[in-house]
Structures are given as C-alpha cells and as structure tokens.
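Support request, please re-run this one:
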Amino acid sequence: MTTTVPLTLPVIDPMENLDNWDATGTWGPDGTSPYAGSFSLADSPVDNYPVSTNTQILTAVNLTGSTWPVLTFWDRYAFADNGDWAYVEVSTNGSSWTRVYSATFTRMTWARQQIDLSPWKTATNLRIRFSVWTNNVNFDEGWYIDDVEVSRRP
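Re-run finished. Output below.
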C-alpha cells in the first residue's frame, strides 16, 4: 500500500481499534489480556492464527522536523515454531521495506519495544507495518500489540 495518509507527530495509539491502520487478514481488537486499556490489537483476535498466512496492519507517519523519532510499542506473542514470525518494517515508498524488529517462538509476558527511526527522520510519509508470516505446519495464538507511539526521543 502506498497511499496511506501520514499521521503527524506525536502519534499515540492505544490500539483499542483499527482506526489508524489499514489491515489485511483477521487483525482486530482482542480483549483477553491487553497491556493497557480494554483491548490490544492481535493478528488473530480470540483465536489461533491459521497456517500459511501473511497478514499485516499498516499506518504512516510524517517525521518532518524530527531529529530523533522513536517507535515504541508493547507486545507479546505465541508462535508454534520458527517458521512463524512477527515483523515490524518501515518504508518510504511502500514497495521497499526495511525490517526493524522480528519475533518468533513464545513470549507471553508484555515487553516494551523501542525502535530508532532516526534514519528516516526526514520522511514525510514513513509507512510502518506490523506483519505476521506463518508456515503450513502448526498454529498458535499469534501476536498482540498495544500502546503504539511514534514520538521524539526523550
């Protein structure tokens, strides 16, 4: 997707809904165990993810004028095997992507992630996507994301 309208800094999304995101697959709010608030976003809310899928949520942010932008979010995940992955990627054009975070296997406790976006500090439309790739063997709960923020480094 290349037409996502960029949000302005600071971006603070409690991940209660998909209002700031373009989604593929079954992404949606999940209230079973959010980090904060009533919901987190999950690739397979209230169910296990299917095998052989590639789904994502995508947004964009205008980083113009920032000197040290940082993407912060909380996540937890349960993937059946090392053929199932979660990725965060960024793109300035919607076609070439740079992977900035990945996760596999299982970590069911919430953990805070911080990703330095300063290499893209002049981007007027930096796309940010959270993707889940699964193989065709096993399935599990998937990826939960909460309290996403893009702001200037404190």
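The longest strand covers residues 106-116. The mean pLDDT is 89.
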